[in-house]
Amino acid sequence: GYGRFGILYRDTAAGVDSTDVTSRFRLQIDATAESDAGVVFGARVRIQQDNDGLANGVSAAPETPIDADGDGDIDYRGRQETGINGVRFFARSGGLEVGVGNIYGALEFMPGMYPIDLGLTGHSYDYTAYNFRGDAYDSDSNGAAGLNGVEVLYSAGDLSVHVSASDVGDRIAGFVAYTWNGWTFALAAQDSDIVGDTEWAATVGGSFGPADVTLAYAKNGDDTGVIGGTGDHWVLAGRFDVGAATDVEVYVADADYFTDTSYGVDFNHDLGGGTSLRGGISSTGFDTTLVDFGVRFNF
Amino acid sequence: GYGRFGILYRDTAAGVDSTDVTSRFRLQIDATAESDAGVVFGARVRIQQDNDGLANGVSAAPETPIDADGDGDIDYRGRQETGINGVRFFARSGGLEVGVGNIYGALEFMPGMYPIDLGLTGHSYDYTAYNFRGDAYDSDSNGAAGLNGVEVLYSAGDLSVHVSASDVGDRIAGFVAYTWNGWTFALAAQDSDIVGDTEWAATVGGSFGPADVTLAYAKNGDDTGVIGGTGDHWVLAGRFDVGAATDVEVYVADADYFTDTSYGVDFNHDLGGGTSLRGGISSTGFDTTLVDFGVRFNF
Amino acid sequence: GYGRFGILYRDTAAGVDSTDVTSRFRLQIDATAESDAGVVFGARVRIQQDNDGLANGVSAAPETPIDADGDGDIDYRGRQETGINGVRFFARSGGLEVGVGNIYGALEFMPGMYPIDLGLTGHSYDYTAYNFRGDAYDSDSNGAAGLNGVEVLYSAGDLSVHVSASDVGDRIAGFVAYTWNGWTFALAAQDSDIVGDTEWAATVGGSFGPADVTLAYAKNGDDTGVIGGTGDHWVLAGRFDVGAATDVEVYVADADYFTDTSYGVDFNHDLGGGTSLRGGISSTGFDTTLVDFGVRFNF
């Protein structure tokens, strides 16, 4: 697992600003056993605690800070999650894996959906084109566990395929990805009963000299012309090595449901021994400015 | 601990049927220390997560499925337990053990009360004659911890004795068991303030050639003539080896408070490395049909 | 971590008495990583379960027992905490440490604030002069995590300094401690918006032959003349070795907000292998008599 902590500054479009301590603790438990025939059975579970919310068990968007402790200052903090999340179980043999429970989800797991991880905290994740409109592994809570989450992953050489389904809006989603000459192309589609869920997505990513570049698109429903509604989502992101121990990440993203174009830049500096210094600055799709800075350590 | 996952099919007497993913994750922590005089002090605690319920923290009987996710389909799923259960503490020296907290309970721990473990999930546990009308170690919740749960276990050669007590209905229960020529005879009695609690129970178990057979009886209050009420509970169960890596379990059980005789059959096939394939079919005392199939792995 | 269990007897000023099983399970996780430059980053988290309350998540003062299980007897028991507490993160280099989250707190961590640990359970902690009127590491819950808890600890030779701050009542507190000829002198001060919070405190502790002795004082607001209100708090406590494996602790404490002088005596007897027998008797500041006896084991 890992821990991270630092400072997070936030200034919303409405001019409400705050500076708070931010932190996460993640203890990951991967328990496995292997049959005589070589099939690996396992479970992944996390004990995680963030302070990214309004109250215990309630998370909050960066755009909606409130006065959580009643002292007259606006803040953004505080929820305590205390136990394990929903469990993902799997059986794996060769390039084939079947998962049930708190599944990864095909859209979430599609190459190019997390082209970068901005700053210390990830900021607004506006650079994740499918915009969380599909099943995803939930580190805090239950995810699709208990709602018949099932998925099949297959990979062979340069090809990978992933199909996932759950009773969350009767979602079924899948992607196909292929790597050719160092470039990975991926195409995904989803069918569900939930208005606003992603319909299809496409990404392409690879390297130009010292830079890793990803272009991603998702059709998250037809454009409603409503902020926070549905529509197209575009992302262009890159990572550049700057010296032996430092890299810089940048992105620009826009969506029909944003008020503004979203963009950001960060740095990650390796301190050795599994520790790193990280920080970033971004302007979100809802015109909130986020700045974070801190340390992450793996254990 | 162990993980298990698979498919569970259910068809109730009212004709409501559903097929769902079933799973359990159990991480068991046994922490002990030994004094210079050889007394072992310890604690047992579990981090467990099932999907055997209606909602977080609420379990459900197999007979009462509901539409948990509001999609119009009947289902049976979903609760997420996230932390540790009530703790059992103990001090052990030679054949004597004193336990406090989330105690095992004398009726629950009596030989012959769990003659088999049907299929992947255990099904309705109709083959447990005392019908959970006494203190028992609670893997999900608090059990008798916090309610002055105390128990004493003693064994010497072929004799074992267990007395438990708690403030749950001021229960006090005990059993005496003796093994003679490969057959184990056990007799238990309980006094409590709870109507419907087990009054006494008796079991006998042993081997006929390749088969392990158990006969169990519990007097769970006088017969009220009410379904789900009180009365006698009978169980006959057996386990048979079928080949080197496979066994088959069967049971038949009846109780005054059942609508129908309960019966079932299962198989367990060892896949090596602590993994096994399991499945079973049963018809419960309330005329619900259960079928499960899946895998279990120890870690 | 450790476990402890035993018996706790309680007799309040109102004459309500009860005898209950008491227990605690604490699993402590200290996760760290060290950078190439020698800075240690880490997190401390506990999975703890006590039965020291009225219900899950609700603790209770020894003076206010209730009939928690509705059986007509007064009792004091039962809460089950199931997950991890708030996390304390830190970065440490040489004698300097910065902590954030569920911070230790300068008043809580000040030398002389825990001169002894009475009996099995700690009893009423009347011998902790600052009376928990400041930030402190919370083993059950969130503490100052999520409320911008920050602290800096520095030590060099005989000198130690600790400053802590949080958004809990905008508390800021600090102490300076110095050890001279085997005696440790400490002085602390706090500013906060919370009526009744400690204003300043002073302690001195050291050894007289076989005895460790501590004198502590805290000004917990001006004397309101109200029981349970605010005012001065004095503590005198000592520990004496009695034979090779046994020690005895005693204390006497008084506060303006007590109804009576508080005092107590205990013993700790080492059983080897990280196990010990412990017990104590005290009369609290609210005239409740507490007697406990039991075992503690480290793992």
Order of helices and strands of chain A: EEEEEEEHEEEEEEEEEEE
What is the end-to-end distance of chain A?
6 Å
Averaging pLDDT over every residue of chain A, what do you get? 91
Which outline of chain A best applies?
globular
**Count of individual domains of chain A:** 1
Helix content, binned percent of chain A: under 10%
Q: Please give the largest β-sheet of chain A.
A: 16 strands, antiparallel, barrel
Using only C-alpha atoms, the radius of gyration of chain A works out to 19 Å
CATH topology of chain A: Porin
Q: Which strand order does the major sheet of chain A show?
A: 1-2-3-6-7-8-9-10-11-12-13-14-15-16-17-18
Structure description:
3 copies of one chain form a homotrimer. In chain A, β11 and β12 form a beta hairpin. Chain A has 1 helix and 18 strands. Chain A has one helix at 106-109, and strands at 2-11, 17-34, 40-50, 53-55, 58-59, 88-93, 96-101, 150-156, 159-165, 172-180, 183-191, 200-208, 211-220, 231-241, 246-255, 262-272, 275-283, 289-298. The first copy, chain A, has a single domain, classed as Porin.
Write the layout of secondary structure elements.
3 copies of one chain form a homotrimer.
Chain A: E1 2-11, E2 17-34, E3 40-50, E4 53-55, E5 58-59, E6 88-93, E7 96-101, H1 106-109, E8 150-156, E9 159-165, E10 172-180, E11 183-191, E12 200-208, E13 211-220, E14 231-241, E15 246-255, E16 262-272, E17 275-283, E18 289-298
Antiparallel strand pairs in A: 1-2, 1-18, 2-3, 3-6, 4-5, 6-7, 7-8, 8-9, 9-10, 10-11, 11-12, 12-13, 13-14, 14-15, 15-16, 16-17, 17-18
